[in-house]
Specification:
Elements (H helix, E strand, L loop, with lengths): L21 E4 L2 H5 L7 E2 L2 E2 L11 E7 L2 E4 L3 E4 L3 E4 L20 E2 L3 E3 L12 H11 L4 E2 L9 E2 L6 H4 L1 E2 L6 H6 L5 H23 L36 E4 L2 H5 L7 E2 L2 E2 L2 H4 L5 E7 L2 E3 L6 E3 L5 E7 L13 E4 L4 E3 L20
Antiparallel strand pairs: 1-4, 1-9, 2-3, 4-7, 5-6, 6-12, 7-8, 10-11, 13-16, 13-21, 14-15, 16-19, 17-18, 19-20
């Protein structure tokens, strides 16, 4: 039986936080008092991986008003932010390596200047809530006859914690100005309108009238047959320096679904072509957001330091998901070669 926490009427659920503001994460007891019996608020779970941040003072990286879920559908989330460099380590989810930015509801935070002294260790009531609610909440009950485990985390619950966001909802762009500069908003709008036209024209216009064959910008169009994409073995390890190949070289390795052995190369990755980055990790298993299943990755899959989705083609989504790279898309740089590691610091997310 889960411990009940008294909900404090003095905890505001809306702070209107902006990027750069300093906040203190509330104590575990205060946060637990905002959660329902399932360990969520507005459908968003507070995960065990977040406990270690209770009482810490951290800067806000971005507001999380616009986010994407599953196959990239853009959605609106209320009263949530991302904190700088606060990513999930997967410790309560059997070592998932996705390293997602965590969502923080404003009810779980307080401005640093208004914060009281942080609470110390977890109380017995806190520990009981963790053991009886938060930890069991990381998995979903399945049919006992099925030999699979389904996981539950903030990423899998985005559809429940958000609502659909339509292109014509103007206030999303006004909100975006709190996190992004006006030129990014304008560029994104132009690209979005162009790509909407491309999708429409490809369905309704004769081929001779199409721009670039009706393909969406930045025109990543693989041509190989499915199941016949090439591979290359570089034996990359964390710390190795690599140069990301040109878009043309990478496109030449893709099938007509823009995948190489099942891994998609999409528009958000194309911006990094030609840049130098350092290998952060080899990715072996991640939770598939749309299903909650742990996916064991058998082919090469590389994560690069600071190389994340900037949301330029997803209406300014702020999740900054790490991009995954095949070794054939990369060139290993000799340790003695003089190069500048420009990819992490060339994007606005290097602080996350």
């Amino acid at each position: 039986m889960s411990t009940a926490f008294e909900v404090s009427p003095n905890i505001p659920t809306q702070l209107g936080l902006k990027p750069g503001e300093l906040v203190r994460v509330r104590s575990a007891s205060q946060i637990f008092a905002t959660l329902g019996p399932d360990g969520t608020i507005d459908g968003l779970p507070f995960m065990p991986e977040m406990l270690k941040y209770c009482g810490r003072t951290l800067p806000v990286a971005q507001r999380a008003d616009v986010t994407c879920a599953g196959a990239g559908a853009v959605r609106r989330m209320q009263d949530a932010v991302h904190l700088q460099r606060v990513r999930c380590d997967g410790s309560a989810h059997d070592g998932c390596q996705a390293a997602c930015l965590m969502f923080w509801k404003e009810a779980w935070l307080e401005r640093a200047e208004d914060a009281a002294e942080p609470q110390g260790e977890l109380t017995p009531e806190d520990e009981a809530f963790v053991a009886e609610t938060l930890v069991p909440g990381t998995k979903v009950e399945t049919d006992p006859d099925e030999s699979r485990t389904l996981y539950r985390c903030q990423a899998t619950e985005i559809p429940k914690a958000s609502e659909p966001l339509r292109f014509r909802e103007v206030d999303q762009y006004v909100r975006g100005l709190k996190s992004w500069k006006a030129p990014k908003i304008l560029k994104g709008l132009v690209i979005e309108v162009f790509n909407l036209w491309q999708s429409f024209s490809k369905r309704h216009l004769p081929k001779r009238l199409l721009i670039a064959g009706g393909n969406t910008y930045p025109f990543v169009v693989g041509q190989l047959e499915k199941g016949k994409t090439p591979s290359e073995k570089l034996d990359l390890e964390p710390g190795d320096l690599v140069r990301i190949k040109s878009k043309e070289e990478i496109v030449a390795t893709l099938d007509h679904t823009n995948r190489n052995k099942g891994l998609t190369f999409d528009s958000e990755l194309a911006v990094y072509c030609g840049r130098v980055a350092r290998v952060q990790a080899r990715v072996n298993h991640i939770i598939e957001e749309s299903t909650g299943e742990m996916v064991d990755i058998k082919s090469d899959c590389i994560m690069l330091e600071g190389v994340v989705c900037a949301g330029d083609y997803h209406r300014f989504c702020t999740r900054a998901i790490y991009s995954y790279w095949r070794e054939i898309w990369l060139e290993k740089i000799d340790p003695g070669e003089a190069v500048d590691v420009d990819a992490p610091c060339a994007n606005r997310w290097c602080r996350t």
